[in-house]
Amino acid sequence: MATFTILGAGMMGTAFCVPLADRGHRVHLVGTHLDRAIIESLQDRNFHPTLDLEIPEGIIFHPIEELQQPGQESDWFVIGVNSLGVDWAAQQLLSLVKPGSHILFLTKGLAAQNGDLQILPEVFRSRFPPSLGKSLHLYALGGPSIAGELARRHPTSVVMASRDNGRLEELAGLVQTPFYHVHTTADIIGLEFCVALKNFYSVGVGLAQAEGERPFAASNSPNVHNPAASIFAQSMTEMVYLAGVYSGFQETTTGLAGAGDLYVTCQGGRNSRFGRFLAMGHALKEVREERMKGETIEGYEVALAIGETLRSLIHRGRLDAKQLPLMAFLLDVMLDEKPAEIPWSRLHG
Amino acid sequence: MATFTILGAGMMGTAFCVPLADRGHRVHLVGTHLDRAIIESLQDRNFHPTLDLEIPEGIIFHPIEELQQPGQESDWFVIGVNSLGVDWAAQQLLSLVKPGSHILFLTKGLAAQNGDLQILPEVFRSRFPPSLGKSLHLYALGGPSIAGELARRHPTSVVMASRDNGRLEELAGLVQTPFYHVHTTADIIGLEFCVALKNFYSVGVGLAQAEGERPFAASNSPNVHNPAASIFAQSMTEMVYLAGVYSGFQETTTGLAGAGDLYVTCQGGRNSRFGRFLAMGHALKEVREERMKGETIEGYEVALAIGETLRSLIHRGRLDAKQLPLMAFLLDVMLDEKPAEIPWSRLHG
Q: What is the Cα–Cα distance from A308 to A330, expressed in whole angstroms?
């Protein structure tokens, strides 16, 4: 039995507790300051309001003020905050992590750092004093894992990555259950590129899904899939290229973290809905402030976080514009509010 | 303007005539002996019953008995019969093709030949006298292209392949329209592997889609996507491996012909429905003879056509069993009627 402290009681942080609890680990779920109502509901009656589910017995719930005590007794930290909360998470853990601490990231995203792209675990590491930062063992998780399905114990396959794989197999083994299949890879870079980019590109798939909903669409063809599939393929092609530039492995992108997670994201969810609204002619501002008010659109957040850096990397020749026509189009749409007319002839070049 | 003879008036053969007619080509659509009712309806009122659509003016419709005249005046032949009809198509064209004739395959599949796998255009070639066969220019088409959507002019992106690319660019250029985007590759092998295997593997995705419909599934989670996405990723991984063994290019599998077509096939259709029935516990015989009576399930046809050859190739060491756990499972289910219980722990190894 091991002791885990999960920081962030959102859907994924909480869902991840289910296999841990099933395995009999000691699990502390610590809410952020945004999770107060969730923690109260969990303490009260084990019910998670956004997962709409009763969580198994045995997990210990804490508000953020109680982080110190479980943090001090934990073997493993798990970061389940959203992608904008990584700096905040580092601050919270500053007094708790020790040389050689083990930290798993459920949080997904890429950041701009020093004019280049950086994976979030490394951004986190850079927030600690150098010698302490260097000693930390960082792990990341990718693959198609809708939180509500994991929490309900549907078969879910993920891949866990770490550059230093000292205890990677051990951690994967601690988490694995009959419904939660945890595979391992050394390719943490490829994995983090995939988990961030799949959100970004699924906005494009959503744009194309709207083809069947447009006014000029034939009335007897409500479900149109060819356009979305074309964008799916171009997304895969560009993800393989991008991860490859940063030394990610091709098999990561064609496996669970890339193809699998892009597939699941395109089956629904906010990113593709966002894309569909844009394709139907709604202005970005209207979608953000009215139709999807208050909703976090991860693919759009990725565009905001790294879009200008991507353009600059293309401008400087680090990335090849010819390999990234869909990315360029999506950045034009999301950053400059250009029309959401898919440039079909520029794709698949 | 060029003259085309399309052999086979099924959904894809007919849909392919739409961009040709839009481009002003002279188009002869010749039905097989199975297409008599379709040809009569088309001659009568331009209506295709299974596409449920009125076809543009200008296409000339023929029963099979009239093949000779259009065949003699055509620059390009297009084969649109089903995958079991390739030998028949070769017989029909025996007196019509000349040295150096150009033949495009819409027909998809892999065949077993001399104990190994062979792509259908090469099976077709082998049915002609050697010197004539060798002189034929063969082209194939892949990518996400649901016939009804193409026929309704929804944006559709495909890739056309030929090993000898003498007139590949010319043919792609003749077919291209503002809604039909035709890209080219020399990788005809990778393309044919993808278009056949995507049907086979989408049976597996269908099996996994049934997870949410099983009796033990939580009642408040009707749509379950993690299991299908996991199988999608494993399918991509095995397709990259398989095409690679036969010298297919990785970018074909991660592009339109592989990822794109697998995606579109998993959005619905008979292969995944077949898989879902099996996963819900119906016997293969019952699904074939009752629930899906009379329907062609292409993924199952692939298993029948090449399943034993695949097993033999694994047995002989030409294919690595460790790379193909999902294929082995699907063959057990489809050829030996083994239980359709997905072997999760053997995947993503």
A: 12
